[in-house]
Specification:
By secondary structure, the protein is an alpha+beta fold. It has five helices and seven strands. A four-stranded antiparallel β-sheet has the order 1-2-5-7. 36% of the residues are buried.
């Protein structure tokens, strides 16, 4: 059977698309090879910050729909929200429930995003006249001293902290892989990273460093908070907050 002109045009079009695909892959490979290691790591950091921002927005969107924030994921390999209520702050600290939220659940280094939420904010309806957001975040000043970045030592109804935080353990040290494997701590004196790994209410967010001699040690965690005002505004607009 002799090919028609239409058949020949389709074949030429398919060949052109294949050539463009191969060229695109080659260009992407060339582009990546042009980057130094530090450039690639900066790209991974930016991407992780974007994933964290998307997770934050998804959490607020969930609350606007359901009248509460979700509980942590069942496990590092099961991203559905835990079915049982949180008995305490520790039970409400774990992994981001990425399947329930419909978002990416890992950072750019293949580690599961961590999530900690105030138990009272995981039960609907949220009683804004009595519910106290319990998560607070510290940073380090120029002298290396810890100071409060979000919240304060005591979270009370008239001086609230934040209801939830989402964070990545960064490229180095600690965390859990998407396969559910705990990552070793290969650093020394990285006290601030260890504190975040164990935290249920108090977290640390500061400038990255590879120097073990600085206050708090080496650090590359990335953390975002869920602002209480933003949460209440979105829930009020959606009429899911009494």
């Amino acid at each position: 059977m002799v090919p028609t002109r239409a058949d020949l045009r389709r074949q030429r079009g398919a060949a052109l698309l294949m050539l463009l695909a191969v060229a695109s892959v080659g260009f992407a490979t060339l582009l990546l090879s042009a980057f130094g290691r530090s450039d690639v790591e900066r790209l991974r950091e930016r991407r992780t910050l974007l994933v964290l921002a998307q997770a934050s927005d998804a959490l607020v969107g969930f609350a606007a729909t359901h009248g509460r924030l979700p509980r942590p994921a069942i496990s590092a390999t099961d991203g559905r929200e835990r079915p049982e209520p949180c008995a305490d702050e520790a039970a409400c600290s774990g992994f981001l429930p990425w399947v329930t939220l419909g978002v990416e659940g890992a950072d750019s280094w293949g580690k599961r995003l961590r999530y900690s939420v105030t138990p009272l904010y995981t039960a609907a309806p949220i009683r804004r006249l009595s519910a106290i957001a319990t998560k607070r975040v510290q940073t380090r000043d120029g002298a290396g001293n810890l100071r409060y970045d979000t919240g304060q030592a005591e979270c009370v109804i008239y001086a609230q902290c934040v209801p939830a935080v989402v964070y990545s353990h960064g490229r180095n040290n600690l965390g859990t892989s998407v396969a559910g494997l705990s990552q070793v701590n290969a650093a020394r004196n990285n006290l601030d990273e260890i504190a975040n790994d164990l935290a249920t209410t108090g977290f640390i967010r500061r400038a990255a460093s590879t120097d073990p001699a600085v206050p708090g040690g080496a650090f590359d965690d990335l953390l975002v908070v869920i602002p209480l005002d933003t949460l209440y505004e979105r829930m009020t607009a959606a009429r899911t907050l009494p």
